[in-house]
Amino acid sequence: MRHHTLRLALFTETFLPKVDGVVNTLCHLLDYLAARGHRAIVFAPEGSPPEYAGMPVISLPCCPFPFYPELKLGLPFLDVSSQIDHFRPDLIHVLNPFSLGLVGMKQARRLGVPLVASYHTDIPGFLERWGFDLLVEPLWAYLLWLHGQADLNLCPSEATRAELAARHFPRLKVWSRGVDATRFHPARRSAAWRHRLSQGHPDAPLLLYVGRLSPEKRVDWLQSVLTDLPEVRLALVGDGPARPTLERLFDRSRVVFTGYLRGDDLANAYAAADIFVFPAANETFGNVVLEAMASGLPVVAARSGGPLDSVVEGETGLLFAPQDDAALRAAVRQMVHNPTLASQLGRAGRARAQRLTWSGVLDRLADDYFALLQQSTSRQAA
Protein backbone atom coordinates (compact mmCIF):
# COMPACT_ATOMS: atom_id res chain seq x y z
CA MET A 1 0.00 0.00 0.00
CA ARG A 2 2.97 2.38 0.63
CA HIS A 3 3.32 2.85 -3.15
CA HIS A 4 -0.40 3.41 -3.65
CA THR A 5 -1.29 6.85 -5.05
CA LEU A 6 -2.97 8.67 -2.21
CA ARG A 7 -6.14 10.70 -2.76
CA LEU A 8 -6.45 13.16 0.09
CA ALA A 9 -9.20 15.71 0.87
CA LEU A 10 -7.97 18.54 3.08
CA PHE A 11 -10.22 20.96 4.96
CA THR A 12 -8.48 24.01 6.39
CA GLU A 13 -9.81 26.94 8.40
CA THR A 14 -7.13 29.22 6.90
CA PHE A 15 -5.25 29.42 3.60
CA LEU A 16 -3.49 31.78 1.23
CA PRO A 17 -3.31 34.73 0.88
CA LYS A 18 -3.20 34.66 4.71
CA VAL A 19 0.27 33.86 6.00
CA ASP A 20 0.67 31.86 9.21
CA GLY A 21 2.08 28.59 10.50
CA VAL A 22 -0.94 26.54 9.40
CA VAL A 23 -0.74 27.86 5.84
CA ASN A 24 3.03 27.38 5.71
CA THR A 25 2.69 23.77 6.85
CA LEU A 26 -0.18 23.02 4.45
CA CYS A 27 1.76 24.47 1.49
CA HIS A 28 4.74 22.23 2.32
CA LEU A 29 2.38 19.24 2.52
CA LEU A 30 0.80 20.03 -0.87
CA ASP A 31 4.22 20.50 -2.48
CA TYR A 32 5.30 17.15 -1.02
CA LEU A 33 2.17 15.34 -2.26
CA ALA A 34 2.53 16.83 -5.76
CA ALA A 35 6.22 15.87 -5.98
CA ARG A 36 5.38 12.24 -5.13
CA GLY A 37 2.46 11.88 -7.53
CA HIS A 38 -0.31 11.92 -4.91
CA ARG A 39 -3.54 13.85 -5.45
CA ALA A 40 -5.25 16.27 -3.09
CA ILE A 41 -8.24 18.59 -3.05
CA VAL A 42 -8.34 21.51 -0.62
CA PHE A 43 -11.47 23.07 0.88
CA ALA A 44 -10.64 26.51 2.26
CA PRO A 45 -12.28 29.85 3.16
CA GLU A 46 -13.39 32.11 0.30
CA GLY A 47 -10.69 34.34 -1.14
CA SER A 48 -8.24 31.44 -1.50
CA PRO A 49 -6.41 30.91 -4.82
CA PRO A 50 -8.14 28.42 -7.19
CA GLU A 51 -5.24 25.97 -7.04
CA TYR A 52 -1.91 25.31 -5.34
CA ALA A 53 0.86 22.95 -6.52
CA GLY A 54 -1.50 21.75 -9.25
CA MET A 55 -4.12 20.76 -6.66
CA PRO A 56 -7.62 22.29 -6.86
CA VAL A 57 -8.69 24.61 -4.03
CA ILE A 58 -12.44 24.94 -3.43
CA SER A 59 -13.34 28.26 -1.76
CA LEU A 60 -16.27 28.05 0.66
CA PRO A 61 -18.38 30.88 2.14
CA CYS A 62 -17.33 32.05 5.59
CA CYS A 63 -17.64 34.89 8.09
CA PRO A 64 -15.09 36.51 10.47
CA PHE A 65 -14.57 35.00 13.93
CA PRO A 66 -15.99 37.61 16.40
CA PHE A 67 -12.88 37.82 18.62
CA TYR A 68 -10.34 37.38 15.84
CA PRO A 69 -11.58 38.84 12.52
CA GLU A 70 -8.65 37.46 10.52
CA LEU A 71 -9.82 33.93 11.36
CA LYS A 72 -12.66 33.05 8.98
CA LEU A 73 -15.41 30.70 10.11
CA GLY A 74 -16.74 28.41 7.40
CA LEU A 75 -20.40 27.51 7.52
CA PRO A 76 -20.57 24.01 9.06
CA PHE A 77 -23.82 23.05 7.26
CA LEU A 78 -22.30 23.43 3.77
CA ASP A 79 -22.75 20.40 1.54
CA VAL A 80 -19.70 19.51 -0.55
CA SER A 81 -20.85 15.95 -1.31
CA SER A 82 -20.78 16.41 -5.10
CA GLN A 83 -17.15 17.62 -5.11
CA ILE A 84 -16.10 14.89 -2.66
CA ASP A 85 -17.86 12.14 -4.61
CA HIS A 86 -16.25 13.31 -7.84
CA PHE A 87 -12.77 13.33 -6.21
CA ARG A 88 -13.23 10.02 -4.26
CA PRO A 89 -10.72 10.58 -1.40
CA ASP A 90 -9.05 7.67 0.41
CA LEU A 91 -8.76 9.78 3.53
CA ILE A 92 -9.87 13.17 4.89
CA HIS A 93 -7.59 15.45 6.92
CA VAL A 94 -9.09 18.45 8.74
CA LEU A 95 -6.56 21.09 9.80
CA ASN A 96 -7.30 23.14 12.92
CA PRO A 97 -10.97 22.01 12.87
CA PHE A 98 -13.37 24.57 14.26
CA SER A 99 -16.20 25.24 11.81
CA LEU A 100 -15.12 24.34 8.27
CA GLY A 101 -13.59 21.21 9.73
CA LEU A 102 -17.08 20.01 10.63
CA VAL A 103 -17.90 19.86 6.92
CA GLY A 104 -14.94 17.53 6.36
CA MET A 105 -15.80 15.38 9.39
CA LYS A 106 -19.34 14.92 8.10
CA GLN A 107 -17.98 13.77 4.73
CA ALA A 108 -15.57 11.29 6.35
CA ARG A 109 -18.45 9.74 8.28
CA ARG A 110 -20.66 9.64 5.19
CA LEU A 111 -18.01 7.86 3.11
CA GLY A 112 -16.60 5.70 5.90
CA VAL A 113 -13.02 6.82 5.14
CA PRO A 114 -10.35 7.46 7.81
CA LEU A 115 -10.36 10.91 9.41
CA VAL A 116 -7.22 12.74 10.53
CA ALA A 117 -7.48 15.96 12.56
CA SER A 118 -4.52 18.21 13.31
CA TYR A 119 -4.40 20.70 16.16
CA HIS A 120 -2.41 23.83 15.28
CA THR A 121 -3.52 26.89 17.26
CA ASP A 122 -3.98 27.48 20.99
CA ILE A 123 -7.24 29.42 20.63
CA PRO A 124 -8.24 28.69 24.28
CA GLY A 125 -4.94 30.22 25.38
CA PHE A 126 -5.58 33.28 23.22
CA LEU A 127 -9.06 33.73 24.71
CA GLU A 128 -7.61 33.53 28.21
CA ARG A 129 -4.96 36.11 27.33
CA TRP A 130 -7.62 38.41 25.86
CA GLY A 131 -9.70 38.20 29.06
CA PHE A 132 -12.52 35.88 27.85
CA ASP A 133 -12.01 33.45 30.73
CA LEU A 134 -15.62 32.23 30.77
CA LEU A 135 -15.29 30.92 27.21
CA VAL A 136 -12.10 28.92 27.78
CA GLU A 137 -13.52 25.69 29.26
CA PRO A 138 -16.54 25.53 26.89
CA LEU A 139 -14.12 25.92 23.98
CA TRP A 140 -11.92 23.11 25.28
CA ALA A 141 -15.02 20.90 25.59
CA TYR A 142 -15.96 21.69 21.98
CA LEU A 143 -12.44 20.97 20.69
CA LEU A 144 -12.36 17.68 22.62
CA TRP A 145 -15.69 16.70 21.00
CA LEU A 146 -14.33 17.56 17.54
CA HIS A 147 -11.04 15.69 17.95
CA GLY A 148 -12.81 12.78 19.62
CA GLN A 149 -14.25 11.88 16.20
CA ALA A 150 -10.88 11.51 14.48
CA ASP A 151 -9.03 8.24 13.90
CA LEU A 152 -5.76 10.09 14.51
CA ASN A 153 -5.09 13.46 16.16
CA LEU A 154 -1.87 15.18 15.20
CA CYS A 155 -0.24 18.00 17.15
CA PRO A 156 2.94 19.92 16.35
CA SER A 157 5.05 19.52 19.50
CA GLU A 158 5.62 17.43 22.62
CA ALA A 159 4.43 20.32 24.81
CA THR A 160 1.14 20.49 22.89
CA ARG A 161 0.74 16.70 22.97
CA ALA A 162 1.17 16.74 26.76
CA GLU A 163 -1.40 19.52 27.14
CA LEU A 164 -3.95 17.75 24.93
CA ALA A 165 -3.33 14.40 26.67
CA ALA A 166 -3.98 16.06 30.03
CA ARG A 167 -7.33 17.18 28.60
CA HIS A 168 -8.09 13.59 27.48
CA PHE A 169 -7.77 14.11 23.71
CA PRO A 170 -7.54 10.57 22.25
CA ARG A 171 -5.23 8.95 19.68
CA LEU A 172 -2.53 11.64 19.79
CA LYS A 173 0.68 11.73 17.81
CA VAL A 174 3.24 14.47 17.23
CA TRP A 175 3.44 15.77 13.65
CA SER A 176 6.47 17.99 13.91
CA ARG A 177 7.67 20.64 11.46
CA GLY A 178 10.69 20.95 9.23
CA VAL A 179 12.77 23.75 7.78
CA ASP A 180 14.48 24.39 4.45
CA ALA A 181 18.05 24.76 5.72
CA THR A 182 19.30 25.46 2.18
CA ARG A 183 17.10 28.54 1.79
CA PHE A 184 17.47 29.68 5.42
CA HIS A 185 21.25 29.90 5.67
CA PRO A 186 23.81 32.16 7.40
CA ALA A 187 25.60 32.61 4.05
CA ARG A 188 22.76 34.93 2.98
CA ARG A 189 24.04 37.64 5.32
CA SER A 190 24.50 40.78 3.23
CA ALA A 191 25.55 44.39 3.84
CA ALA A 192 22.51 45.65 1.91
CA TRP A 193 19.97 43.84 4.08
CA ARG A 194 21.91 44.69 7.24
CA HIS A 195 21.82 48.38 6.24
CA ARG A 196 18.09 48.22 5.47
CA LEU A 197 17.04 46.50 8.71
CA SER A 198 19.32 48.57 10.96
CA GLN A 199 18.34 51.85 9.23
CA GLY A 200 21.92 52.54 8.30
CA HIS A 201 23.49 51.44 11.61
CA PRO A 202 25.07 48.09 10.61
CA ASP A 203 27.39 48.00 13.63
CA ALA A 204 24.54 48.14 16.15
CA PRO A 205 23.27 44.83 17.57
CA LEU A 206 20.21 43.89 15.49
CA LEU A 207 17.26 42.04 17.01
CA LEU A 208 14.72 40.35 14.74
CA TYR A 209 11.11 39.26 15.23
CA VAL A 210 9.25 37.38 12.48
CA GLY A 211 5.57 36.58 12.74
CA ARG A 212 2.10 37.99 12.93
CA LEU A 213 1.67 41.36 14.59
CA SER A 214 -1.26 40.46 16.83
CA PRO A 215 -1.84 40.90 20.57
CA GLU A 216 -1.17 37.29 21.59
CA LYS A 217 2.37 37.49 20.14
CA ARG A 218 3.30 40.10 22.79
CA VAL A 219 5.57 42.05 20.43
CA ASP A 220 4.93 45.09 22.66
CA TRP A 221 7.16 43.41 25.29
CA LEU A 222 10.13 44.31 23.07
CA GLN A 223 9.61 48.00 23.84
CA SER A 224 11.10 47.52 27.33
CA VAL A 225 14.00 45.58 25.76
CA LEU A 226 14.82 48.63 23.62
CA THR A 227 14.57 50.92 26.65
CA ASP A 228 16.92 48.60 28.56
CA LEU A 229 19.42 48.39 25.69
CA PRO A 230 19.64 51.79 23.95
CA GLU A 231 22.38 50.55 21.60
CA VAL A 232 20.23 47.89 19.86
CA ARG A 233 18.02 48.04 16.77
CA LEU A 234 14.91 45.96 16.05
CA ALA A 235 13.39 44.69 12.81
CA LEU A 236 9.77 43.47 12.83
CA VAL A 237 8.94 41.22 9.88
CA GLY A 238 5.24 40.49 9.48
CA ASP A 239 1.89 42.19 9.64
CA GLY A 240 -1.41 41.95 11.46
CA PRO A 241 -4.06 43.77 13.46
CA ALA A 242 -1.63 45.09 16.12
CA ARG A 243 0.62 46.88 13.62
CA PRO A 244 -0.93 50.38 14.00
CA THR A 245 -0.66 50.14 17.81
CA LEU A 246 2.95 48.91 17.61
CA GLU A 247 3.89 51.66 15.14
CA ARG A 248 2.69 54.21 17.70
CA LEU A 249 4.44 52.39 20.56
CA PHE A 250 7.90 51.99 19.07
CA ASP A 251 10.43 54.69 18.27
CA ARG A 252 10.50 54.46 14.49
CA SER A 253 14.10 55.69 14.42
CA ARG A 254 15.19 52.36 15.99
CA VAL A 255 12.53 49.95 14.74
CA VAL A 256 11.87 48.89 11.13
CA PHE A 257 8.49 47.45 10.08
CA THR A 258 8.99 45.49 6.86
CA GLY A 259 5.51 43.97 6.49
CA TYR A 260 5.35 40.37 5.28
CA LEU A 261 8.45 39.04 3.54
CA ARG A 262 8.53 35.80 1.57
CA GLY A 263 11.04 33.50 -0.08
CA ASP A 264 14.58 34.81 -0.47
CA ASP A 265 13.69 38.21 1.02
CA LEU A 266 12.61 36.51 4.26
CA ALA A 267 15.75 34.35 4.31
CA ASN A 268 17.92 37.45 3.72
CA ALA A 269 16.22 39.24 6.63
CA TYR A 270 16.97 36.39 9.05
CA ALA A 271 20.61 36.19 7.98
CA ALA A 272 21.11 39.94 8.41
CA ALA A 273 20.20 39.91 12.13
CA ASP A 274 22.14 38.98 15.26
CA ILE A 275 19.50 37.65 17.68
CA PHE A 276 15.99 36.27 17.15
CA VAL A 277 13.49 37.40 19.79
CA PHE A 278 10.16 35.60 20.20
CA PRO A 279 8.05 36.87 23.13
CA ALA A 280 4.90 34.76 22.47
CA ALA A 281 3.90 32.19 25.12
CA ASN A 282 1.01 30.37 23.40
CA GLU A 283 2.82 28.81 20.46
CA THR A 284 2.02 25.22 19.54
CA PHE A 285 5.22 25.03 17.47
CA GLY A 286 6.77 28.24 16.10
CA ASN A 287 8.00 27.64 12.52
CA VAL A 288 9.85 30.96 12.62
CA VAL A 289 12.02 29.74 15.51
CA LEU A 290 13.29 26.89 13.34
CA GLU A 291 13.86 29.25 10.39
CA ALA A 292 15.89 31.56 12.63
CA MET A 293 17.97 28.64 13.91
CA ALA A 294 18.64 27.43 10.35
CA SER A 295 19.79 30.98 9.56
CA GLY A 296 22.38 30.76 12.35
CA LEU A 297 20.61 33.03 14.84
CA PRO A 298 20.57 32.41 18.59
CA VAL A 299 16.99 32.45 19.90
CA VAL A 300 15.38 34.09 22.92
CA ALA A 301 11.96 32.48 23.51
CA ALA A 302 9.46 31.78 26.29
CA ARG A 303 9.92 28.56 28.26
CA SER A 304 6.55 27.21 27.13
CA GLY A 305 4.81 25.50 24.23
CA GLY A 306 6.21 24.46 20.90
CA PRO A 307 9.56 26.31 20.94
CA LEU A 308 10.69 23.87 23.67
CA ASP A 309 10.97 21.22 20.94
CA SER A 310 13.51 23.38 19.07
CA VAL A 311 15.30 25.62 21.57
CA VAL A 312 17.62 23.89 24.01
CA GLU A 313 18.40 26.19 26.96
CA GLY A 314 22.04 27.30 26.89
CA GLU A 315 22.72 25.25 23.76
CA THR A 316 20.73 26.81 20.90
CA GLY A 317 19.17 29.75 22.74
CA LEU A 318 17.96 31.21 26.02
CA LEU A 319 14.50 30.62 27.49
CA PHE A 320 12.67 33.01 29.81
CA ALA A 321 9.82 32.44 32.28
CA PRO A 322 6.69 32.89 30.12
CA GLN A 323 5.01 35.62 32.21
CA ASP A 324 8.19 37.53 33.15
CA ASP A 325 9.11 40.42 30.86
CA ALA A 326 12.12 41.22 33.07
CA ALA A 327 13.44 37.71 32.33
CA LEU A 328 13.03 38.41 28.59
CA ARG A 329 15.06 41.61 28.98
CA ALA A 330 17.76 39.78 30.97
CA ALA A 331 18.10 37.04 28.32
CA VAL A 332 18.44 39.54 25.47
CA ARG A 333 20.90 41.62 27.52
CA GLN A 334 23.02 38.51 28.13
CA MET A 335 23.16 37.80 24.39
CA VAL A 336 23.93 41.40 23.41
CA HIS A 337 26.69 41.75 25.99
CA ASN A 338 28.22 38.35 25.22
CA PRO A 339 28.49 38.06 21.42
CA THR A 340 30.74 35.00 21.79
CA LEU A 341 27.92 33.15 23.56
CA ALA A 342 25.40 34.39 20.98
CA SER A 343 27.57 33.15 18.12
CA GLN A 344 28.09 29.75 19.81
CA LEU A 345 24.33 29.32 20.35
CA GLY A 346 23.64 30.34 16.75
CA ARG A 347 26.06 27.74 15.34
CA ALA A 348 24.56 24.99 17.50
CA GLY A 349 21.05 26.05 16.44
CA ARG A 350 22.02 25.83 12.79
CA ALA A 351 23.42 22.31 13.31
CA ARG A 352 20.21 21.21 15.04
CA ALA A 353 17.93 22.75 12.41
CA GLN A 354 19.78 21.05 9.55
CA ARG A 355 18.59 17.67 10.83
CA LEU A 356 14.90 18.72 10.77
CA THR A 357 13.93 18.44 7.12
CA TRP A 358 10.43 18.82 5.70
CA SER A 359 10.88 15.67 3.61
CA GLY A 360 11.61 13.62 6.74
CA VAL A 361 8.65 15.11 8.62
CA LEU A 362 6.26 14.55 5.71
CA ASP A 363 7.53 11.02 5.00
CA ARG A 364 6.48 10.14 8.55
CA LEU A 365 3.08 11.79 8.02
CA ALA A 366 2.59 9.78 4.81
CA ASP A 367 3.42 6.62 6.79
CA ASP A 368 0.68 7.56 9.26
CA TYR A 369 -1.81 8.09 6.40
CA PHE A 370 -0.99 4.69 4.90
CA ALA A 371 -1.16 2.95 8.29
CA LEU A 372 -4.68 4.32 8.78
CA LEU A 373 -5.70 3.15 5.32
CA GLN A 374 -4.30 -0.30 6.05
CA GLN A 375 -6.28 -0.48 9.31
CA SER A 376 -9.42 0.67 7.53
CA THR A 377 -8.99 -1.95 4.78
CA SER A 378 -8.39 -4.70 7.38
CA ARG A 379 -11.52 -3.70 9.30
CA GLN A 380 -13.65 -3.76 6.14
CA ALA A 381 -12.29 -7.17 5.18
CA ALA A 382 -12.96 -8.67 8.63
3D structure, described in words:
It is a single chain. This protein is of the alpha/beta class. The protein has two domains: 7-178 and 357-381, Glycogen Phosphorylase B (Rossmann fold, 3-Layer(aba) Sandwich); 186-354, Rossmann fold, CATH 3.40.50.2000. It is 41% helix and 20% strand. It has 14 helices and 16 strands. It has helices spanning 21-35, 81-87, 100-111, 123-129, 133-147, 158-166, 191-197, 222-228, 243-249, 263-272, 287-294, 325-337, 339-354, 358-381; strands at residues 7-12, 39-45, 51-52, 55-60, 62-65, 68-74, 91-95, 115-118, 152-155, 172-174, 206-210, 233-237, 255-259, 275-278, 299-302, 317-320. The strands form three sheets. An eight-stranded mixed beta sheet has the order 3-4-2-1-7-8-9-10. Helix 3 links the parallel strand 7 (91-95) and strand 8. Helix 4 runs antiparallel to helix 5. It is globular. The two termini are 18 Å apart. The relative contact order is 0.12. The model has no long low-confidence stretch (mean pLDDT 92).
